[in-house]
Fold this protein.
Amino acid sequence: MSLSTELSGVHAAQTDIDTIGNNISNVNTTGFKNSSADFSALYGSAVPTAPGQGVATQSLAQSFTEGTISLTGNPLDVAINGNGFFQVQNGSGTAYSRDGSLHLDNNGHLATTTGALVMGFSAPASGSAGASSGALQPIQIAQADIAPAATSALTMDVNLPANDGPIDSTANPFSPSNPKSYNESTTTTVYDSLGTSRTLTTFFTQVSGSGSPDQWQTNWELSDTSGSVIASGAGPTLTFNSSGELVSGNGTITVNSLPNGAAPLSIAENFTGSTLSGLSFGVSSVTNNGSGGGQLAGVQIATNGVVSGQYSNGATRVFGTIALANFVDPQGLIPISDNLWTASAASGPAATGAPGTAGLGQLESGALEGSNVDLSSQLVNLIVAQQAYQANVQSINVEQQNFQRLVTIQ
């Protein structure tokens, strides 16, 4: 007789209970993946009639099925919808996680709740788009303001009505205060070197018609937000051919003195694309290369992992792209504390890429992936494991009683 068989059963049942208990305790842990104990039978002889020698724990298998994704409303919370792991850097080195509870640390780095830095691809020099390859580095959100930029180029695409009719400039010399001295007008915002917005009004006066070419004289007026006029002047004459296409008419607006001490303003006006037709007056597009200064107003994470900042002046700046990692055998990953895994020889090296590429999942911002533990199933499994434990303990009691009888017989 031997107690080793029953003891192996007790040990296996306890391992099962511990594994299930760990699953249940992490039922609300973000990004947690449940495990199950795998067992194998032990035999010490190849004789078919020989009894087995018990059971051994073969492995703890992790289930990487996706947990439920729930909205949180926090723009820095991010869930992986599909395959992959966040790659993070902590004091111990590189680790991997499905927990997207992120925040900005005191250096502006995108970090996990435990302070591990989220790794990604750096933004291109232009800062206008995300990258999907290159060396991985921590993603840092620059806190500096965007400097203002004076308007130096203004493109205006308008349609002028052919049936407006010429204005007699002798009888009605141009004046912004006299609507009879111009046919149409439009306003747009321009910026000085300090980022102060100014209102630029452009006036269009038809000076010739019923012949070819038709000509329209432009005038401009620059005012501040209160409506006070800063400067005014004549702009280019727009000349159209018989098909209503603009033939010539680009010019430059120059303002040598501004009331707030900003640098002189020089704006290249471009009316390319403007037309003359029987349609009513309209402005198709206005392109202005100036902007006021901007402060960081928020951070956004796109489905493709691009991390960008939104500024108070409407500008956007890209800071990098969150990288995801995947493995040939995720079962080989070693779970450690803080919702992390480390790679092993069994898992193979990490293959990194941008979300949505090479079989990697996409990101969902403002959301988190919950634990994939099914509490009902775990409670049922716990009952079964507990019964197995009690049955093996009962077998040990029977063995002990048999030993006592043998001692008595002798």
Q: What stands out?
A: The chain has a mean pLDDT of 91.
